[in-house]
Amino acid sequence: MKSKIIITAACVILASASFAELSGEDIIRKVDENLTFDSARFEAKMIIYVGDQVREKRMEMYAEGSEKSFAEFTYPARDSGVKYLKLGDQMWMYLPSVEKVIKIAGHMLRQSMMGSDYSYEDALESGELLEKYKVTLAGKEKIGNKEAYVLELTARVKDVTYYKRKLWVDIDTFIPLKEELYAKSGKLLKVSETEKIGKFGGRSYPTKSVLRNLLRKDSRTEFIVTKAEFDADIPAEIFTERNLSR
């Protein structure tokens, strides 16, 4: 019996040592394993709070990896049929009211997407953070009742929306529980918090998050995933400009 106890204790010590040896880059890779996918289909809604006003918008979304995505708004009626297509670092929007496809580029990228706290730049971002940022593991902290790794990310390339990021990553699910987004000047621009995490097979994925744009007064946007299907079979024509005006 004593030998079994010793072996078990040794296994626990080895497992703990291995767990403790995760680097910042290791943690980001695990985050990417959850947040990136070959393909997915979502139903979601945004609830936008600005002062005393509350607006809800619903949409259907399709994605292939981080390079292709398509979204169509279905509610409210005034937004029904508004569509977005992302291919790599390019984005187009279709407005049914004028039956026109608009390419979103230049200064438009910094504008609010559908009146929310998200910008078009946010929507265009790829999940491959290690290609763009140097990562430092700064320690551990509690976020609510969950323990999290604290990661500090600093841009290694010029073409990034946010020069610095600070992430609190759940040590159990490897989902970011909180993220702070900074300008190069050090000014805090936005704060994102994950309020709910769903389990989809072996994958953990955020199902409710709240984004606050600190440059807007009394503003926040809740993004809620109401349905998710990963490794979905998505027709190739979904991700085409022709599909925008269909």
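[next item in queue]
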Amino acid sequence: MWFGLGIVAYALVHPVAQVGWTMWTIHWSTVIGLTALGGAYVWGARHLRERALHAGAEPPVLRRRQQVAFFSGLLVIFLSLNGPLHDLSDTYLFSAHMVQHLVLALAVPPLLLVGTPGWMLRPFLANAKIGAVARTITKPIHCFIIFNVVIALWHLPPMYNTAMEYHPIHIVQHLTLMVASVLMWWPFLSPLPELPRLSYPGQMLYCFLMVIPMSIVSIYIAMADHVLYPAYSIAPRVWDITPLSDQQIGGLIMWIPGGLFFYVVMTVVFFKWAARDTDTTAGAQVDWRPPRPTRTVSQARPSVTVRQDRSSSF
């Protein structure tokens, strides 16, 4: 009862007429969190650079593309958790919430990982306990399990409906989703050789297996014959989409674009693997071919010529 009254009150405060691309609602918890994360990134880079200079070592370099990637990731988080997408997903449409979750899981973590150099994370591994935990949770099998368990648990009706009712739990939902997603991407984009990436064949198998659990969850949602998440059934209707249709659309968004995304990643990994093998083969041909000897007429001897030809053919 209290859950339903809370949703109705929230809908009255945010009527559907206020949702639009020109109407922006800002949640200051996200602003504070993103500002703190960006500040820690800048401070950490500056601190490690100054420490290297003080020790007489070569200072690490934070490249421009890394900074652009990291702060682009923060911008995508802000756009996902504020404004029209957030308003639609929190109050009106389950399908919009699914889009929001896919953005947080599939778009944000690669940007953050590409933007974070290994030397910025390496000092944390000096702590024995943190290093042990990091080595455990970044193993590919554990990354796979953690991500899929988090996805499955938060889409169970009791967990999802609780997050919709209590905003602090909703914040925890988004935080755990993003942390689990960073781990899911770790075997592809690890910036630390101490916590290595998977080989290219392993990455392709990882992608293929990742589709299976997400498909199970999305099929469960899309094929349900009743509304699983009642918060959306009492919300004002948007574009005349019924609650059950909205739920089915959300399941299909998770199933088809979410699944196809991993096949795209698999394709990219395959071409990177092929390109690396081509470069390695070309390098091997150059490395193994002996230099052509410079001979004068007086130095030319048939036996030497035959020996050189044989090694060249090898």
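[queue empty]
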